[in-house]
Design goal:
With about 260 residues, the chain is an alpha/beta fold. About 40% of the residues lie in helices and about 15% in strands. Helix 4 runs parallel beside helix 5. The protein is globular, with a radius of gyration of 17 Å. It starts with a strand and ends in a 5-residue tail after the last helix. The relative contact order is 0.15. The structure holds zinc ion. The site of zinc ion has 5 residues, from loops.
Length: about 260
């Protein structure tokens, strides 16, 4: 059995309201040792904190998703910093740029992302970075951030982002996309050293084949491990172990 760390999972979302308790217990029984829950907006911080108190395997990150960047008041930044001092708050996320939906104006997204990167560095915390159709601007912002560490979450195979991330020693969050038929990630993933790969679901979204279209959940990471093993022609257990240790190290988890 693999030991699994889901480094990006929205288990607090309403899609899990009916069976969250059961699902977390099942995940734990199935080998999931940690579920890292990123925030989408400031209202999430307290709810996610409560989950970390209720379940030993649940950890939280604080940040504001680019969609919600317009909600980033000074008060929200202060609140995020306050949560970062809590025991089971292990990172800043999710933060980034999303020009595909552009729910918040680009200039605001950039400013908020930049501020959260500074907060992460000042507090010596890793980040979980979201990037959709905004690679150039995003790379411009991160490359000036000395001391930045963390994960490019939900990496989908962009080669510029791959190069920038590798240059900066960032990790790559690999999930369901790897199993999608049309995904180019299958070819690109070979260029990421295994030492820089962590697994994630982004649940409830992006369930891997053969569960595609269904609600995603932490144990489905096994399908991603199987796919990566097939692509790299490496042992599944070895891949799972290395990614597990990577997650421990980037998020400084004490399991
Ligand atoms: Zn997410």
């Amino acid at each position: 059995m693999y030991r699994i760390i889901d480094t990006h999972c929205h288990i607090d979302m309403e899609e899990f309201n009916k069976d969250r308790d059961e699902l977390i217990k099942q995940s734990k029984a199935g080998g999931v040792d940690a579920i890292l829950v990123p925030a989408v907006e400031p209202d999430d911080f307290e709810r996610e904190f409560e989950l970390t108190q209720a379940y030993d395997i649940v950890y939280q990150m604080v940040g504001i998703h680019p969609h919600e960047a317009k909600k980033a008041t000074q008060d929200a930044f202060d609140k995020a910093i306050e949560y970062l001092s809590k025991n089971k708050c292990v990172g800043v996320g999710e933060i980034g740029l999303d020009y595909y939906y552009e729910h918040s104006p680009r200039e605001i997204q950039k400013r908020v992302f930049d501020s959260f990167l500074d907060i992460a560095i000042e507090n010596d915390m890793p980040v979980s970075i979201h990037c959709r159709e905004a690679e150039e601007d995003l790379i411009d912002i991160i490359k000036s951030k000395r001391g930045l560490r963390g994960v490019i979450h939900c990496f989908s195979g962009n080669d510029k982002l791959l190069k920038a991330g590798l240059d900066m020693g960032l990790y790559f969050g690999i999930g369901g996309i790897l199993t999608f038929k049309k995904s180019t990630l299958k070819d690109v993933v070979k260029y990421i050293p295994l030492e820089f790969i962590v697994f994630e679901t982004d649940a409830p979204y992006l369930a891997p084949v053969p569960k595609r279209g269904k609600r995603n959940e932490p144990l489905y990471i096994r399908f991603v491990i199987e796919k990566l093993s097939e692509i790299l022609k490496k042992d599944q257990q070895e891949i799972a172990d290395i990614a597990y240790n990577n997650a421990l190290s980037v998020f400084r988890l004490n399991l």
